[in-house]
């Protein structure tokens, strides 16, 4: 029995509310159970210096957890003193979203995705990627409506889900009680049924090739559901 009472292939309840920030070109609040992340997309009509005159667009991301996102208060991170975890997650979000972008079609501009965790209960990086794509899509829609680009540069929705081995069972969408006790923990980033990135590690017990394949099957099943939620949110 999972602590939440869910079935092994059952995700937490997912909701995506769009247009939650009146200033950002794209925004949403994604909730996966008790994990809540605010995602905003900001368009800049120039690219970083290393991309100048390349004809290619750029998508990058920043990630952070608010001080009371967890059960005890954390110190607010300054950009100059970000933890290794924060830096690793925001790089993951950026490269995951870029994998689903035709950067030629985007044109020489940058879109920054900001992911701020309001409340954390496991899977914050996965929720950030999933919600980040929704914010990105809404920003791209504004570029198309303004005729600043002629075709949609977003190839496929990008979503992510955690799956792992808890109490000897392969389970979908780990919450914090499961994540903290999992023998194996994996994060799967996917688009159109294809893999972008897999982060998987033993946290106390080894795992077999068959178990890895089983977790991938669970993640694929879950990402199909997340894709449907994303497309419904931006419809």
Number of domains: 1
> What is the name of the CATH superfamily?
GHMP Kinase, N-terminal domain
Order of helices and strands, N to C? EEEEHHEHEEHEEH
Biggest beta sheet attributes: 5 strands, mixed
GO molecular function: 3'-5'-RNA exonuclease activity; tRNA binding; tRNA nucleotidyltransferase activity
EC number: 2.7.7.56
Family: Belongs to the RNase PH family.
Catalytic activity: tRNA(n+1) + phosphate = tRNA(n) + a ribonucleoside 5'-diphosphate
Explain this structure to me?
The structure is a single chain. The protein has helices spanning 84-98, 103-106, 124-145, 176-179, 209-234; strands spanning 14-18, 26-32, 35-44, 58-65, 110-119, 158-166, 169-172, 184-191, 194-202. By secondary structure, the chain is of the alpha+beta class. It has a single domain (14-234), classed as Ribosomal Protein S5, domain 2. The termini are far apart. The mean pLDDT is 95.
């Amino acid at each position: 029995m999972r602590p939440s009472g869910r079935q092994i292939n059952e995700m937490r309840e997912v909701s995506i509310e769009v247009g939650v920030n009146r200033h950002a070109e794209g925004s949403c609040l994604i909730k996966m159970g008790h994990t809540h992340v605010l995602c905003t997309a900001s368009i800049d009509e120039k690219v970083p210096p290393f991309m100048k005159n390349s004809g290619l667009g750029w998508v990058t991301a920043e990630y952070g957890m608010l001080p009371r996102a967890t059960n005890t208060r954390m110190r607010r991170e300054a950009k100059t003193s970000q933890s290794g975890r924060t830096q690793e997650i925001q790089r993951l979000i950026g490269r995951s979203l870029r994998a689903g972008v035709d950067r030629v079609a985007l044109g020489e501009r940058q879109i920054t995705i900001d992911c701020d965790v309001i409340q954390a209960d496991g899977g914050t990086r996965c929720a950030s990627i999933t919600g980040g794509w929704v914010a990105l899509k809404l920003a791209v829609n504004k570029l198309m409506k303004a005729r600043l680009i002629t075709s949609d540069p977003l190839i496929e929705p990008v979503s992510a889900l955690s799956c792992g081995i808890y109490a000897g069972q392969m389970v979908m969408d780990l919450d914090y009680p499961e994540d903290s006790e999992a023998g194996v923990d994996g994060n799967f980033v996917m688009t159109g049924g294809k893999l972008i990135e897999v982060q998987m590690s033993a946290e106390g017990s080894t795992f077999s090739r068959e178990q890895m394949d089983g977790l991938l099957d669970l993640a694929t099943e879950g990402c199909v559901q997340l894709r449907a939620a994303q497309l419904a949110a931006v419809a």
